[in-house]
Amino acid sequence: MLINVIIDLKQFMLFYFILCGLFSLVYSVTGNQNMQISANNLFREEFKDSEDPYPGIEYRRIGQVLGNYINIIKASTGDLGLVNGA
Predict the structure, then answer these.
(1) Are 47 and 38 in contact (CB under 8 A)?
(2) The whole model's pTM is what?
(3) How far is CA 17 from CA 65, 73, 75, in A?
(4) Domain spans of the chain?
(5) Out of 1, 40, 42, 79, which could bridge 74 as a Cys pair, Cβ 3.0 to 4.6 Å?
(6) For residue 14, what pLDDT band results from cuts at 50, 70 and 90?
(7) d(CA 73, CA 10)
(8) What is the DSSP letter of 64?
(9) What would the pLDDT profile of 17-73 be if each residue is shown by its tens digit?
């Protein structure tokens, strides 16, 4: 019975991860929490000389898209720390 549940969840999990990937790409295109682009001057000026780390700093080594992917999965599972960073 448990094997049947896992087999049934494979399709849902595939759809879920694809959907999270698409939301991650949309979030990456907007350039939120990106210190390296010039279009994000307000964000850069706010956190440039601040003692507090900017939102998303924990993902600076793995890249913007993968960091956003992790944030989307965290937000969809109920960890709403992403909302406070906005």
Answers:
(1) no
(2) 0.67
(3) 14, 8, 13
(4) 2-85
(5) 79
(6) very high
(7) 17
(8) H
(9) 999 999 988 887 876 666 666 666 676 677 676 666 666 667 778 877 888 898 889
